[in-house]
Amino acid sequence: MSAITISRQYGSGGNVIAVRVSEILGYRILDRRLIMQAAAEAGLPEQGFVDISEQEFKVKGFRDRLVELIFGPVLSHKSAPPKLSWGGLEAQMDADWFVELVNATVLSAYQQGGVIIIGRGGQVILRDKPGVLHTRIEAPIETRIQRVQQAEGVNEITARQRIDEHDQASARYLRQNFKVQWDDPLLYHLVINTGKWNMESAAHIIVEAAKITQAVPTA
């Protein structure tokens, strides 16, 4: 097994670093964008409920599309789809159901190996799994504000607001669904401050740490 989880503050450069790591190692990336793309293509709404009569078709479509997006059409068509647990399917597809689905997707991606999991509680879901490197990317607030301003073309006040909103949402997701503090350093093998390291250096640090992780059994 081989996987890297990346938790990142908004504006810390975590997504850029993840892409660079994937280029170096040839790993796939599993992030919110991919999950929501698969849901949209399968006809699932991001919010709200789905009638029971429609669930079986839509869930299967979502599963198949997500498997293909993560693992590629060759693997998804030549082998059985990952076995996911759809707890609560007999009721309604609510927020808890979607969290459980995402958790199962993370586990399936880990079982296939060679994956970078951005957010979604990967550091908790795979906490005790061997061959997983858990990383967190941070940066000083001033640095993050400047990066968001440049990337999104907004003023300082708006950049700060977006940072606060994203960080609070991430912290709330971990707190509500996993009962942990998002910024607890004990969840991670490695915490990188991109106010001190540039993106390329940070990516190479993760790559080297991942190589060590594969060779050393989990304590």
Tertiary shape? globular
Number of strands: 5
Distance between the termini: 16 Å
Beta-strand percent range:
5-15%
Strands ordered across the widest β-sheet: 2-3-1-4-5
Oligomer: single chain
- The CATH class of the largest domain is Alpha Beta
Task: Write down the Rg.
Answer: 18 Å
The helix content is 55-70%
Mean of residue pLDDT values: 78
Would you list the SSEs in sequence order as H and E?
A: EHEHHHHEHEHHEH
CATH architecture tag of the largest domain: 3-Layer(aba) Sandwich
CATH superfamily of the largest domain: P-loop containing nucleotide triphosphate hydrolases
Number of spatially distinct domains: 2
How would a crystallographer describe the biggest sheet?
Answer: 5 strands, parallel
Q: Can you summarize this structure?
A:
This protein is of the alpha/beta class and 219 residues long. It is built from nine helices and five strands, in the order E-H-E-H-H-H-H-E-H-E-H-H-E-H.
